[in-house]
Design a protein that fits this description.
By secondary structure, the protein is mainly α.
Length: 450
């Protein structure tokens, strides 16, 4: 059915979008307006937080159905059930390798540039009231609790709670069950395939509110914390952004080149999602449309459904760079000389804690608290130093995580011979003009809403 619609869409006369109709242009404009409003009228800017929160809630509303439908329809169409375990195994191998690399990169750069050197702060003078809240959450987010939380209370509860790994768990089991019963389950598979069309059209509808959400979120950030609040911590922010950029262009770029594509082409292809993440500081806001775009780029639906949601919990490259860099920044600011053994311990603990607190709101700060609470050499109270600027680094964490997961999806698909290279080349050569899928574009042409 989708093939017929796509072929019909190809025969429609091309319609060139005006620049102000392109989603990422609207989001950029909204971000700039939000910064200006937050800077010149901070009280008004700070009061606009509900706009950003409301948009993220709208997107989270649709995440569970998107993951469930993508995974179930993908797995139910597999001919060999061993494929699920094979794809998951390859994805986890990729995640562990590059998450560890991200931790090491953050540690190396922090040791070379030493952004915290010279602050000479006495850790006993640091206020730790808010930090204590994060430390308490981190204490609760142990590895065992994290693994137990993957198991849902009922088969339907993940669709209402929105926990990504619980949705993935139920979807994989249900997809395997449908594939096992064969023809008896085909009517359900057909129904779910048909249900995919309106669900993804709904995603396109929700994305129209992205500029409003980005405007509210950015106005709040600047109005609440102020551009000047960055102060002498600007070096840490710049170091983090540059490190993340180099990680994407050099390390992920080398992986992409080895697997037959360029990382810059991938970034251009998902530019809508990147601008959306920049405006909202939430990589979850782009999850539904990222999954759709990865399918359009030639990755099999089953691979997309397994790799992307899992990567949102296990492949947090940006968060990992931030963790080791922030920990060393605190040590340097407090004049704590960490030995090689201390730094190796920090690295090992971070490898575990980054998985234990995955998927928790504010995961970057919580995982840092979890790491420091185990490494006694660095005071947890030192997190108060970066609490004020954490919001300015959350955008970079989310952007890096998003690019890392998009890259992982294509690489794992290629490893599993589940990548259509012609579709990938065509998608990268002609990036989509808007955020909508083909069905949404076609309907929009026939019955424009604007």
């Amino acid at each position: 059915m989708s093939m017929d619609i796509s072929s019909h869409d190809e025969h429609l006369p091309p319609k060139k979008q005006k620049f102000y109709q392109i989603l990422y242009v609207q989001v950029i404009f909204a971000i700039v307006l939000g910064i200006l409003l937050g800077h010149f009228w901070p009280d008004i800017g700070a009061s606009l937080k509900p706009l950003g929160d409301a948009f993220i809630k709208l997107v989270k509303m649709i995440i569970a159905p998107v993951i469930f439908l993508t995974v179930v329809t993908g797995i139910s169409g597999m001919k060999h059930m061993g494929t699920v375990g094979r794809v998951t195994g390859k994805a986890m191998l990729y995640f562990i390798t590059f998450s560890t690399l991200a931790l090491i990169v953050g540690m190396i750069v922090a040791n070379i540039i030493q952004p915290g050197h010279g602050l000479n702060i006495d850790p006993t003078t640091l206020k730790s009231d808010k930090v204590a809240e994060y430390a308490e959450k981190a204490h609760d987010a142990s590895i065992v609790d994290f693994l137990m939380n993957i198991l849902p209370t009922t088969i339907l509860s993940p669709l209402t709670s929105g926990d990504i790994l619980q949705v993935l768990f139920v979807a994989v089991l249900f997809g395997l069950s449908l594939a096992a019963v064969g023809e008896k389950g085909q009517p359900i598979v057909d129904f779910l395939n048909n249900l995919t069309a309106p669900v993804f059209h709904l995603v396109g509808m929700l994305m129209k509110f992205a500029p409003i959400g980005a405007f509210g979120a950015m106005a709040f950030t600047i109005g609440k914390y102020g551009i000047e609040s960055i102060g002498n911590l600007l070096l840490l922010i710049m170091t983090f952004y540059i490190t993340a950029l180099l990680f994407i262009l050099v390390i992920l770029g080398a992986v992409a080149r080895y697997n037959g594509f360029r990382i810059t082409d991938l970034i251009r292809y998902i530019k809508d999602e990147l601008w959306l993440v920049l405006g909202t500081s939430s990589s979850e806001a782009a999850l539904p449309s990222l999954m759709r775009k990865m399918e359009k780029a030639g990755c099999e639906k089953s691979v997309v459904g397994l790799v992307v949601p899992t990567g949102y919990s296990f492949n947090l490259d940006g968060t990992n760079i931030y963790m080791t860099m922030a920990a060393l920044f605190i040590a340097q600011a407090c004049n704590i000389d960490l030995s090689i053994q201390d730094q190796v311990l920090l690295l090992l603990v971070a490898m575990l804690s980054s998985k234990g607190a995955a998927g928790v709101t504010g995961a970057g700060f919580i995982t840092l608290a979890a790491t420091l609470s185990v490494v006694p050499a660095v005071p947890v109270a030192g997190m108060a130093l970066i609490l004020g600027i954490d919001r300015f680094m959350s955008e970079c964490r989310a952007l890096t995580n998003l690019v890392g997961n998009a890259c992982a999806t294509i690489v794992v698909a290629r490893w599993d011979n589940a990548l259509d290279k012609d579709k990938l080349a065509a998608a990268f050569a002609h990036p989509p003009k808007s955020h909508y899928d083909e069905k949404a574009v076609e309907q929009h042409r026939e019955d424009p809403m604007d």
